[in-house]
Amino acid sequence: MNYALTIEDHHFELHPSGALFWPREEMLLISDVHLGKVTHFRKFGAAVPPSLIRKNFDLLDRVMDEFTPSHLCFLGDLFHSNINSEWQIFEKWVAGTSGDITLVTGNHDIISPLKYESLGIVSKEEYVRNNFYFTHEPSKRTGMFNISGHIHPAVRLKGKGRQSIKLPCFFKSRDQMILPAFGKFTGTHVLPVKSDSEVFACTRTEVLKI
Amino acid sequence: MQEEKLYNIAENWFKGQGWQPFPFQRKTWAAFLQGKHGLLNAPTGSGKTYALWFPIVLNYIKDNPDYKKRHKKGLKAVWITPLRALSQEIKQSAEKVTQDLGTSLSVGIRTGDTSTRERAQQRKTMPDLLITTPESLQLLLATKGYAAIFKDCSAIVIDEWHELLGTKRGVQVELGLSRLKTISPKLRIWGISATIGNLEQARQVLLGPESKAYQKSVMIKANLKKKITVRSIIPKKMETFPWRGHLGIRLLDDVIPILKKSKTTLLFTNTRSQCEIWFQKILERYPEFAGEIAMHHGSIDKDTRLWVEQAIRNESLTAVVCTSSLDLGVDFAPVETVIQIGGPKGVARFFQRAGRSGHRPGEESVIYFLPTHAIELIEASALQKALRTQTVEDRIPYLNSFDVLVQYLITLAVSDGFLPAEIYPEVAQTFCYQGMSEEQWQWLLNFIVLGSQSLQSYDEYKKVEVDETGLLKVTNRGIAMRHRFQIGTIVGDANLSVRYQKGGYIGSIEEWFISKLNPGDVFTFAGKNLEFIRIREMQVLVRKSRKRTNKVPSWMGGRLTLSSEMSKLLREELYSANAANDDQSVEIASLGHIFDQQKRESIVPNPDQFLVESFQTSDGYHHIFYPFEGRFVHEAMGSLLGYRISLLQPITFSLAFNDYGFELLSDKEVDIKNVIDNNLFTTEYLLEDLQKSLNATEMARRRFRDIAVISGLVFSGYPKKGIKMKHLQSSSQLLFDVFRDYEPDHLLYQQAFRETFEHQLEEGRLRIAMERIDRQEIIWKKCKQPTPFSFPIITDRLSRERLSSEPLEDRIRRMAAKLMKK
Fold this sequence. Notes:
Low-confidence stretches of chain A: none
Order of helices and strands of chain A: EEEEHHEHEHEEEEEEEEEE
Strand content of chain A: 25-35%
Largest interface: A-B, 44 and 50 residues
CATH topology of the largest domain in chain B: Rossmann fold
Oligomer: heterodimer
Number of domains of chain B: 4
Shape of chain B: globular
CATH topology of chain A: Purple Acid Phosphatase, chain A, domain 2
CATH class of the largest domain in chain B: Alpha Beta
Strand order of the largest sheet of chain B: 3-4-2-5-6-1-7
Shape of chain A: globular
Structural class of chain B: alpha/beta
Number of helices of chain A: 4
CATH class of chain A: Alpha Beta
Mean pLDDT of chain A: 91
Mean pLDDT of chain B: 85
CATH superfamily of the largest domain in chain B: P-loop containing nucleotide triphosphate hydrolases
Strand content of chain B: 15-25%
Distance between the termini of chain B: 85 Å
Largest sheet of chain A: 9 strands, mixed
CATH architecture of the largest domain in chain B: 3-Layer(aba) Sandwich
Low-confidence stretches of chain B: 555-559, 719-724
Helix content of chain A: 10-25%
Helix content of chain B: 40-55%
Number of strands of chain B: 26
């Protein structure tokens, strides 16, 4: 179940996968997919389950089908490392999508922008639309609302008797929103909750406001 | 050369030293020279090293009669020790034998401390006698052409086998031996073990349960009767001695006279934090001991530890506060007295510690027992009984440790490659893998070759390759290098090294402790007050501080639990509280007033009774059960019972436990009669209920960390991390989640659960305990106030676990409400 949220008078939908949809602009925002990571590990001899490769693409298909955006924007760390065989799967996947794709590059994006260009993907360091500007690493600019990724935010919930659960989350503060990592083979980083923080935790099927 | 002449060489050497060989030494020589394998049961300091070095050298003399003129090169014997620190002493005694007998046999050490240059040198020419660790033996098998190194090896000795048995390092040894049996046709396999309950099984594990080696083996027992005296330090004012506690500081003043009248005293504590606190407190109250006492535990830097060990030998220290780090090896003749602070939880450990004193043959060993709370005196009494009846616990060997097998197979693939058909029978002969199915074996081969169970499109998995002859081999140099690096890793909790900002290593500390500190906080470590500055690249930077603090790191690994033998003795001692005064031990008699109080409120159970108490306090309704089986069994039994009760009525419990019993605390009262009538102690559906009741997933997750490192699923501890390595970092936690969600039938994932049940929750023991309770009469006492027995349990705030069967989303919503309140 998605969570509807209004930011700066704009309506947004938070998806349990970590994707963020902006209906007015028909724009889907996805951060930290880390494609190629499973293959990268396997290439170096760590037998991470190969079925995970497919899972990332299945999930991408699912959110694309649900929102049918005219613009897809990746907020960095789309690929984990050097090019490997997952690029070919990605090529096919891109060919099957309609609409524009933009990549706001992140620290892991070491694959040449020319390779992306050949697939019709524009890569840039930041992207601005209306009062919103999108980056990979969280950033601040007066009068603007920043949407980013990079951190893989999570929240730790504690209960009585040493109970504790860690969940990936959308992490919002006054002029900033950090998206959870979309990729299935990515870790998380627990962020401390401050007075102006708003936290939206993702379970497998729901986004819950904390 | 004739056997008689050979023995004469040995007998003469002993005569030259003014000694006479013990019968067990002679027996071992004879068995070895007859070509037999075996297990030698002998304690530290008994001359066990000479029992085996001699026949090794004599055997060489026998095969090379002109040994004084000509030296035959090549490895002749391997001596495995679990602790690198012991290798130097073993080398000295070996060299004494080889030189005195006029051979030119060389003795070398190869451990993690050996320099690369020396290793390379050894690869060219192996020493005749090699002293090494299980990890380094494994590394030798990762060397190209390793078979040639071992081809003339006549003996391998596994020292302190009891320490390795019951660990994955022991499994590593089992696998190494299975290979050596094939490539060293003249090999004799010998283990040396202190007394444990399952000695016969220890021999089976060492040699392979149905193997030819086992059939051709002997068990030799030293049977050296050592006189051990246990003296309990009984508080002068028993009435005011606390009912709970775990430090024992209250009796510090009683310890001082013992230290003063003895040459060197070792004070054994159960945890490193307790060790730190005792050291601090002695110096605080008796500053005159400054410079005369020292501290020794596993997290302190190696050089400091070595310095302390040397100082004990030099007799320059009055006392050393230590942990199990001083349990093993190293002969400390000057130690006259040993003090055990708090229950040692195991009989074997207690004996071993007692044996630290009066090390010279024939001397009496004295050990003082210092209780940390009143009930612990029952433990002291039980230990005395154990001493009289020679009761010692078992070490439970691992079964089907697939992580270790994966590592071993890749090791063989890294060196010369292997043919599965040749290796399978060797592995199947070991104790650990005797129950492995052929499907599981095939699964493991797929895992190392394909990285999964079937070929995947677009897959670039690279590790072990199969060549046209069917040989499984690693050809990629990077993979080989990373694997060799990983073999040396002794797995444990994530440790950070503690260093001064200006440089200088102090020791290592568990990550979770540091994670609770803020910069500027002061904590006590290695006997110093240190201010935490920051963490940088797995290093904790600190500076010295004058501020006082009560923050002492505790180490999770330090938790000990009562062994099953110890718990049985404990119960028996407890029952004696109902006996006549004359039949009671001093310790039990001293507890008279506590037992009286207990009997006023409740009862002291008899052997055929199982006691349950319930009472109400401001905290809620307490329900206390007393199985006396050790904390691990209690954790499992408490969770299980809590779960079963929650099926009868909707309820939420908080669970507390210690070595004597467990408590279910709730805001509702439980009718214990209902528990009895519904037969909730049944062993039916035990495993299923246990899985549902406990946070087994969290426990398995912690277990999985070791499994992931050993099997090479995660890379750990690279000295230098370039960008390429950074992209290869992941946590075992993440992998665990991935397997849980996408490949729950993965053998390594399942192993984490199996280990949780077999080794952590001790399912086997739990079952036996519940069967015992099933035969007992359950006595339910409704009390007006907490009883002396219940006191240590209900006041334990550290180990509380919550049991609940509410759905996750509800739990999150409730916790979220709490989060907002901050």
